[in-house]
Amino acid sequence: MQIRDEVRRETVLVWALVWPIILTNLLNVAVGIADFKMVGGLGIGAIGAVGMARQVMMFLMVLMIAISGGSSVLIAHAHGARDLRKVGDITAKSMGLMLFAALFLVTPGGLLCSRPILQMLGTPPEIMDASVEYLNILFLGSVFTMFNIGVSGVLLGVGKTRVSLYMLIVVNLLNILFNYLLIHGVGPFPRMGVAGAALGTVVARVLGSAAGFWILTTPRLPIQSRLRAALRFDLDLTRRILYLGGPRSLQGVVRNFSRLMTLGIINLLPDATRAVSTYSVAMHIQQVSSFIGLAFMSAAMSRVGQNLGRGDRQAAVHSGWICATLAAAMMTVAALVFFFLPEQIMGFFTDDREVIRLGRVFFMTIALTEPVMAFAFALGGALRGGGDPMPPFFYASVSDLVVVILSGYLLAIRCGMGFNGIAVAIAIAALTRALPTVWTYQRGRWQTKGI
Q: For a 10 Å CB count at each end of the chain, is N or C smaller?
């Protein structure tokens, strides 16, 4: 009876933490959907340009993921131990590290590498210039994007995900508004087309950074970061942040490299522009379900870290299983939508019949393994929260690099399945990632890792 009560209590705590993350992720997806919808009126080439540019952007912003993810785990442990001074110190130094990375690594690296990466991927000439222009604007404003994400990571660590949700509601609404005004040139705003989607995002992130500064310093929240601490470099803290967040960051590199290579494979197909447009829209919509899994991954990381921080291993174990079960249940709902309404989903973005046909097969195929992927996401987050970030990184890397790229090429090109082969490869990869993740969590060695 006591264990049942503890599980019930932990389930309530997990859900209170995770529902704002889910809504936050869905809001982020909604901005991307709005971008695709608004630029879709400019033609399928504009959709392809935004899709290619977004993949490159995520590939080059890996340090953001490493610093934010690692600091979230450390903050969760400090918050669980009720060490508020340590929470503020980690927050300040991690934000300082993130801003340094944005100014001196991400922005110049993005400006220098965008066009070469797009060329390496075989981006169709008709969308090359628009993709580069979109990326250049985003990278010039990357410091504000990273600041926003850093603040969200801190709030996750202390369990204040509703505050993060409220901030992002405002930021994303402003994002959609400015994108619309700048894409189409409404009123006094210039008509910028694809570039307007990028500039609208930057303007909204600037305003979000102002709100984030208040969040980090106000005495109303259990953060109260002293900004002077951000100027003092701490090698040991940096090492721990990168150890805990680095594998997740590298996993993001691997995932985005896999998607970039997948785009390269798709560019080998006949009518590559239509296939790229289909993949860009389909993968962005697929993020709706993936972000449900990622929300439970973040919740598992936070709750496992907080429970271990206060020395309760049993509660930490329960947190992981509860997050995984809820994630699979919610992902099943998304999978049913993908399976039964694929044409309606694709038809929202374009009236091109071939793009709709390709998207239909894609959604019906990946729907079969979406719940399995959610289970793997959540338990991977639990392992990270327990201080064992390497196994989920390894399993995901093998899945993305070997299964998706190799089998995608073999099925799509060598076996003549075309774009449908890409969908089958992604579905198979979900299984190769989930099974070893469950086995590793079940073994329980992560409970004794320590941070």
A: N
Name the CA radius of gyration of the chain, rounded: 21
Tell me the whole-structure pTM to 2 decimals: 0.73
Kindly report the number of other CB atoms within 10 A of residue 112's CB atom.
11
**Site of tokens 């009236």:** 351
Using a CB cutoff of 8 Å and minimum separation of 24, what contacts does 83-91 make? 84/222, 84/224, 87/157, 87/158, 87/222, 87/223, 88/223, 88/224, 88/225, 88/226, 88/229, 89/225, 89/226, 89/229, 90/237, 91/154, 91/216, 91/223, 91/225
The Cα–Cα gap between 49 and 35 comes to 11
C-alpha span between 29 and 37 (Å, rounded):
12
Q: Determine the Cα–Cα distance for residues 288 and 383; give it in Å rounded to an integer.
A: 23
Read off the pLDDT of residues 198-242 as tens digits, 9 standing for 90 and up. Answer: 898 899 999 989 988 888 888 887 776 776 666 677 778 888 888
Which domain covers residue 316, as residue numbers?
Answer: 2-448
Counted domains in the chain: 1
